[in-house]
Amino acid sequence: MGYPQVQMRRLRTSELIRSMVQETRLSPADFVMPLFICPGNGVKAPVGSMPGVYRMSIDNILSECRRIRNLGIRAVLLFGIPESKDETGEVGADKNGIVQQAVRAIKNKFDDDILVITDVCNCEYTTHGHCGVVVNGKIDNQRTIEILAKQALSHVIAGADIVAPSDMMDGRVGAIRKALDSQGFSDTPIMSYAVKYASAFYGPFRDAADCAPKFGDRKTYQMNPANAIEALREVELDLQEGADIIMVKPALSYLDIIHRVKSKFNVPVAAYNVSGEYSMVKAAAQNNWIDENRVIMEILTSIKRAGAGLIISYHADQACELLQEEKF
Ligand code: PBG
Question: Is residue 14 included in any domain, yes or no?
């Protein structure tokens, strides 16, 4: 049977009908809000390349958590801009480091009302900006994962609910799992940035977190954007090492990867709608070239439709405001 008996447009005739047959619906519970924490008091410094995003000191982070929690967002992903950096990134494991302090402050104030996820990586803590320890111009995998395990453990001791390693070293999930288990934290999940591409879409983030590599690039550890089979292999290995949640990053140029990972593995999949994806929308909107709210909701819906159960996005707060107003 076909036209005229079958008419696809019947279910598009009114807003109510369209809404009734809508397959994918965003909800505040889908989102994780990334936050940049810097030292000091009363600091709320705009990130130039990311309109609407700020680096905040802990006092302001706490008000920000209250604001987004009121919008229904239940999880935050923390990035730290530390007071000082070193050659190996070991400062990242300091129990009084910026992230550790922020975790304690947020957990102290919000307890189980907000889930605190911490990004675990060395690039914010190394003087050269690489995600690993550099020996003779090369990244030393083994030394790096030992340091990452210490950093992850220090976050969990401070109270982090989930750790999210974003460095793309081999074996880091296993090393972190082992470190957590050995200290009695076998209940703490690992959200692995299992599939992280060497992407130009991270540009604005490196501004925000002050972590652009001072030489070379990240192509010896992050993945080639042209590869999909390799992504499945990365996921398989991270799951074997004990990853609980798998992340694909960036999101938009990799919707096919999100879909493939979700179809192949029966695990929760998170997608990171990264800084460059955010800034492009903001720049176009500032020029009145696009309808900002509609574009944001279309993008976020597409990420969920592709298979991501969790969406990490700088648009999360705006999206939740729109959902509250029932505009979408
Ligand atoms: C740290 C890290 C990066 C991002 C998240 N964690 C930067 C990078 O790998 O260069 C990017 C996030 C974004 O662009 O929004 N390794």
Answer: no
Ligand 1 pocket: which of 121, 218, 314 to mutate (most atoms within 8 A of CB): 121
Which one from 85, 107, 150, 196 is the annotated catalytic residue?
196
Cβ neighbours for 228, distance < 8 A, ≥ 6 positions apart:
256, 257, 260
The answer to the question of residue 222 being in a domain is: yes
Structural domain boundaries enclosing 95: 25-324
CATH number of the domain that residue 238 is part of: 3.20.20.70
CB proximity list for 216: less than 8 A, separation 6 or greater: 130, 137
What is the pTM assigned to this prediction?
0.97
Q: Are 251 and 202 in contact (CB under 8 A)?
A: no
Strand 54-56 and strand 75-80: the pairing is unpaired
Is 9 part of any domain? no
Best residue among 126, 202, 214 to mutate for probing ligand 1's pocket (most ligand atoms within 8 Å of CB) is 202
Are the C-beta atoms of residues 118 and 103 closer than 8 Å to each other? yes
Tell me which H or E stretch contains 196: strand 191-196
DSSP 1-44: --TTT--GGGGGSSHHHHHHT------GGGEEEEEEE-SSSS-E
Per residue in 262-287, pLDDT (tens digit) is 999 999 999 999 999 999 999 999 99
pLDDT at 328 over 80: no
- 306-322 pLDDT tens trace: 999 999 999 999 999 99
Domains in the chain, number = 1
Residue 185 lies in a domain: yes
Q: Counting atoms of ligand 1 from 1, which one is nearest the CA of 314?
A: 15
Q: Residue 86: left (phi > 0), alpha (psi -120 to 50), or beta?
A: beta
